[in-house]
Amino acid sequence: MSTLWLFLTIIPILMLITFFITLKFNGSFNYDQNLSGLELIKEKLSMKIKFDRILNMMFFGNLGYLLPIVFIVVTSGSVISGELEKRTMSNIINTNLTRRSILITKLACLVSLILIAVFAEWIITIILIYGINAQEFFDILKLGIKFLGLFLMLLLFSSIGFISSCYFNRSVHTLSIIGVIVIISLVLSIVATTDKTLEWMKYLSINTLFDYSNIDPNKLSSFLGQYMIMLFLSIGLYVSSYFIFTKKDLSL
Asked: Which PANTHER family does this chain map to (predicted)?
């Protein structure tokens, strides 16, 4: 688990470093010093919007989302069912650990890894922005809200995988369910953007709950409701996982 997590956490961080260094050395943060007044404001605003879109496209919508999802699908989908399938759960239970302690330990470990990964990426992003003195081109508060949304989205998918892992005794069933849900959600969110007549499909996708491109820090309504839904759904699924695992007949 830790090796896969480390690998899939380092890659986005390296891409972030490459992204900012490339922009810096290519002079992308430079603007015409002769501009002033309204023209200067428009130029900086245009650059701010451009960098925000690039970061959205590269990180929140693709690399920074897909790589953690791979970890979540593989890990959450086999965290319980994988040990049941390999018959190692009996060894753990024979150590006098209760089902409750086993579940809470695994849950805490999974959530902690997701939290640490997203937090590390957020911190590195802030360090890079201030390190190259480009803070005037990025909305720091907006970035923080986006990283929070990314964490909640990953948390929601992990809770789906976790409850599936607690319900099924074979990891292949769990991995199939979480994998299909992730793929369908991603495809529906992409298809919904291709034509206005297909826009309704976005409401069938979990990804819609993290609408990073329309987040406005000055309008809580642009993200708070979706974030609360992701949080409560995650808590509900994790709590349900507890009751499923503690009540089920384990195949030991």
From this structure: INTEGRAL MEMBRANE PROTEIN-RELATED, MEMBRANE PROTEIN
